[in-house]
């Protein structure tokens, strides 16, 4: 049993609680800005190419100082250093947490159990680059000698969301002559739709699975192999030219029938949701090329270095993590919206859902004691302007406090020209208008002054004081994407450290997997499943009656 005080009994926690009750009984961003002309400038931090304005938050300098004291008391930077040193901070799986080694400088030394892992990382990156170039140039051909024109990534969770999100984000940088698709769902419709118009002779399957035991992925990969063999005359030798694996598990890869030579390796110290800059990024690398992939890694590294070395006051992941704690733990905010103003970031929030919710959706501490404080929020959101015409109403005038991140860019992505490029200013006008409206609202007096009839004043009033962070960069490049992802990775880290939870395990997904295995025979063969609860039993019976 640990003798460190529980989080909520720490004096730093109590100080924040008191501060919330005293200084923020009736928060007013209008007043905070009016009283402090330097606020916008001071509460902006620049990291690499990112400008991060957090001045529209319900904080004062005192709030920020108190939050930093909490971070010191909970030893966030101590745990950060242990992570970068390769210590086994994933306590329940007894693993190091070293996604930062995946993008370390080539001459860096990062040791796991006394062995420098950077040369291995670079060696795999080199093999990936070589393979990606061969596919892109047509040197790598399929079984019938035809050039590969389609890449289908089969994976789920971290083996899908990261590469799929980054592929969308960097579409403008991809080889447009290639078709790249991502299949994750065990619903056969996913694979069907991804392959129905493809020629097997020109299709490469990239099977991405850290464990290579994930039922969805193995099932889809098996069906993909059947599809391929059916299309190529059944010669098993075709598999070697059309299947590669990204995994930590060479044994299972070989057992599946993929040649170990066609496997790109990574390591147990890379968590699935932190893995798209490892071999798991191969489909992305084929799409954007090794050079752009390297630029993305450099972007990650910029923010890693910042997180490792910047002082607390100017440490962006620390600040963003602490702001989340401020709302989640002291304002009872349950959710956090991430609203990108870029069509290319359409999968960014879905990616962050796994990153954040699988990492910090925990209710026991690192030593197994229950928490009696809120942990990770529900993360949600879609590209901004679409959201404006759907759910922003609730953010503006509903009863819930929803802190939100607005992510936008000063320039459209390079390819856009003419009228489409000009639309960018309209997009960004919305971006700026929304955070302004959320922060400052519209008072009844202002509404009245516009001549609005008295009975509509209340309806047209905006309370304001909805906190937002604005993240702005010149453009969405591979490097900027790496910077953005690393920013969120480390933000999630900071929150897990303060909450004293293991952000790197995911035991919560196991029970469903076990039960699915147990129920499946009842669906396929009608076998009795002992111990099935009456509700599920009745549903299974109904399913079998309906199943054709
Ligand atoms: O759903 C749990 C999980 O283990 C994720 O953490 C992981 O990203 C995903 O499944 C896929 O796992 P794998 O890469 O081993 O197939």
Write the topology of this structure.
Layout lengths: L10 H13 L5 H6 L4 H4 L1 E4 L2 E4 L7 H13 L2 H10 L25 E2 L2 E2 L1 H20 L12 E5 L6 H9 L9 E5 L4 H8 L7 E6 L6 H17 L6 H5 E5 L2 H7 L6 E3 L16 H7 L1 H20 L6 H15 L4 E6 L7 H13 L17 E3 L3 H5 L3 H6 L6 E6 L8 H23 L3 H6 L7 H4 L7 E6 L4 H22 L10 H16 L8 H13 L2
Parallel strand pairs: 5-6, 5-7, 7-8, 8-9, 10-11, 10-12, 12-13
Antiparallel strand pairs: 1-2, 2-13, 3-4
Helix pairs in contact: 1-4, 4-14, 6-12, 7-12, 7-15, 12-13, 13-21, 14-21, 15-21
Bound molecules: 6-O-phosphono-beta-D-fructofuranose.
Catalytic activity: alpha-D-glucose 6-phosphate = beta-D-fructose 6-phosphate
InterPro entries: G6P_Isomerase (IPR001672), G6P_Isomerase_C (IPR023096), Phosphoglucose_isomerase_CS (IPR018189), SIS_dom_sf (IPR046348), SIS_PGI_1 (IPR035476), SIS_PGI_2 (IPR035482)
Function: Catalyzes the reversible isomerization of glucose-6-phosphate to fructose-6-phosphate.
What is the count of DSSP helices, taking H or I runs of 4+ residues? 23
The helix content, as a percent range, equals 40-55%
User: How are strands sequenced across the largest beta sheet?
Assistant: 1-2-13-12-10-11
Ions, cofactors and other ligands present here are: 6-O-phosphono-beta-D-fructofuranose
Tally of DSSP β-strands: 13
**Whole-number mean pLDDT:** 96
Distance between the termini: 56 Å
| Unreliable sequence segments | none
Subcellular location: Cytoplasm
Protein name: Glucose-6-phosphate isomerase
Keywords: Cytoplasm, Gluconeogenesis, Glycolysis, Isomerase
Active site: 358, 389, 513
């Amino acid at each position: 049993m640990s003798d460190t005080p529980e989080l909520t009994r720490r004096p730093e926690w109590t100080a924040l609680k008191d501060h919330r009750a005293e200084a923020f009984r009736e928060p007013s961003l209008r007043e905070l800005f009016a009283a402090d002309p330097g606020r916008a400038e001071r509460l902006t931090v620049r990291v690499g190419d990112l400008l991060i304005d957090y001045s529209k938050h319900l904080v004062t300098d005192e709030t920020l100082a108190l939050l930093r004291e909490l971070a010191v008391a909970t030893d966030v930077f101590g745990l950060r250093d242990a992570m970068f040193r390769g210590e086994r901070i994933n306590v329940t799986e007894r693993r190091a947490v070293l996604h930062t080694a995946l993008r370390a400088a080539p001459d860096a030394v990062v040791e796991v159990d006394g062995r420098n892992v950077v040369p291995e990382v670079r060696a795999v990156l080199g093999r990936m680059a070589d393979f990606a170039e061969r596919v892109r140039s047509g040197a790598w051909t399929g079984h019938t000698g035809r050039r590969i024109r389609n890449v289908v990534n089969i994976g789920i969770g971290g083996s899908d969301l990261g590469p799929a999100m980054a592929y969308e984000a960097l579409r403008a940088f991809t080889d447009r002559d290639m078709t790249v698709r991502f299949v994750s769902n065990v619903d056969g419709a996913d694979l069907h739709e991804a392959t129905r118009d493809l020629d097997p002779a020109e299709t490469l399957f990239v099977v991405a699975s850290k464990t290579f035991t994930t039922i969805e992925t193995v099932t889809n990969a098996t069906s993909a192999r059947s599809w391929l063999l059916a299309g190529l005359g059944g010669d098993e030798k075709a598999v070697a030219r059309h299947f590669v694996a990204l995994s930590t598990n060479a044994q299972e890869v070989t057992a599946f029938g993929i040649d170990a030579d066609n496997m790109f390796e990574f390591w147990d110290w890379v968590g699935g949701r932190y893995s798209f800059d490892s071999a798991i990024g191969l489909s992305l690398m084929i799409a954007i090329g090794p050079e752009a992939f390297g630029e993305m890694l450099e972007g990650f590294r910029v923010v890693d270095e910042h997180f490792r070395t910047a002082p607390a006051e100017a440490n962006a992941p620390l600040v963003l993590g602490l702001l989340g704690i401020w709302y989640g733990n002291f304002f009872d905010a349950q959710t956090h919206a991430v609203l990108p103003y870029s069509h290319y970031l359409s999968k960014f929030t879905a990616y962050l859902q796994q990153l954040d919710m699988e990492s910090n959706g925990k209710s026991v501490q690192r030593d197994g004691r229950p928490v009696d404080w809120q942990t990770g929020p529900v993360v949600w959101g879609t590209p901004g302007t679409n959201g404006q015409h759907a759910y922003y109403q609730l953010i503006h005038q509903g009863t819930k406090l929803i802190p939100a991140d607005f992510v936008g860019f000063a320039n459209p992505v390079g390819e856009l020209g003419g009228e489409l490029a000009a639309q960018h200013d309209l997009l960004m006008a919305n971006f700026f208008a929304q955070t302004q409206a959320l922060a400052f609202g519209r008072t009844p007096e202002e509404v009245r002054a516009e001549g609005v009839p008295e009975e509509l004043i209340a309806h047209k009033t905006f309370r304001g004081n909805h906190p937002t962070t604005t993240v702005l960069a010149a453009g969405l490049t591979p490097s900027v994407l790496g910077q953005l992802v690393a920013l969120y990775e480390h933000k999630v880290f900071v929150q897990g450290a303060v909450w004293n939870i293991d952000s790197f395990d995911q035991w919560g997904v196991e029970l469903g997997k076990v039960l699915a295995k147990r129920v499946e025979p009842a669906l396929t063969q009608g076998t009795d499943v002992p111990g099935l609860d009456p509700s599920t039993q009745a549903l299974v019976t109904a399913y079998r009656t309906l199943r054709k």
